[in-house]
Specification:
Strand order of the largest sheet: 1-2
Largest sheet: 2 strands, antiparallel
Number of helices: 8
Oligomer: single chain
Helix content: 55-70%
Distance between the termini: 36 Å
Strand content: under 5%
Length: 204
């Protein structure tokens, strides 16, 4: 009986942790895609681009060596005005234009809608939103935001921000794995390790 209560408590704690983590993920991800505030400096990509370009010291950015810009073009399917080089102001315009693309805008609006109507105000309208690909869109926006930070850091602030070597599914940095080891231990305790499915195992 005590064992059953203990297992139930661990499962409940794990479920609460998962739900809380999902809410925090949506809250913080939506925040960086908000519009900049004309009165206050806010932590948004648009605001960061506007501020960062003021500190630029480059005349031209040569795309042959711009691996992160190449990744961004592939991710968004939106080409830059030149295949050879762009000026910092052209790069600024390109980055802002990417955020206006219809396929990007709908993802951003969906995550803001969930934040505003479901998490912040607890309105139960999710079934009518048509968000079948919501978590895929969350992953897409995470990849997009990560690339933006890398690009802004390298070309405007001249200080490389940490960037994963790849984007998309199954890219996890080793530091994240080490920090999440306790969760792996808990999952193994609750479900038994032989029942766990590992994302790096392709034999499924």
């Amino acid at each position: 009986m005590l064992k059953e209560k203990s297992e139930f408590s661990e499962v409940s704690s794990l479920s609460f942790l998962q739900a809380s983590s999902q809410d925090l993920c949506i809250l913080h991800l939506a925040k960086i895609f908000d519009n900049k505030n004309p009165k206050y400096k806010t932590r948004t990509l648009k605001g960061l681009i506007e501020e960062a370009v003021k500190h630029n010291r480059l005349e031209n950015i040569y795309l042959r060596f711009a691996d992160n810009l190449i990744k961004l073009q592939k991710l968004t399917d939106f080409r830059m005005p030149s295949e050879e080089f762009v000026t910092p102001n052209e790069l600024k315009s390109y980055l802002l234009d990417v955020l206006k693309l219809p396929n990007i805008r709908v993802r951003i609006e969906n995550i803001k809608l969930v934040r505003d109507k479901y998490i912040a105000h607890n309105e139960y309208i999710i079934e009518s939103l048509g968000l079948d690909s919501f978590w895929d869109d969350v992953r897409f926006l995470q990849d997009l935001g990560s690339l933006y930070l890398s690009i802004i850091g390298r070309y405007f602030l001249h200080s490389e921000y940490f960037q994963f070597n790849g984007t998309g599914r199954n890219y996890v940095h080793y530091s994240m794995l080490s920090q999440m080891w306790w969760l792996y231990e808990m999952l193994g305790k609750i479900f038994e390790r032989e029942n766990l499915v590992y994302w790096w195992d392709n034999n499924d």
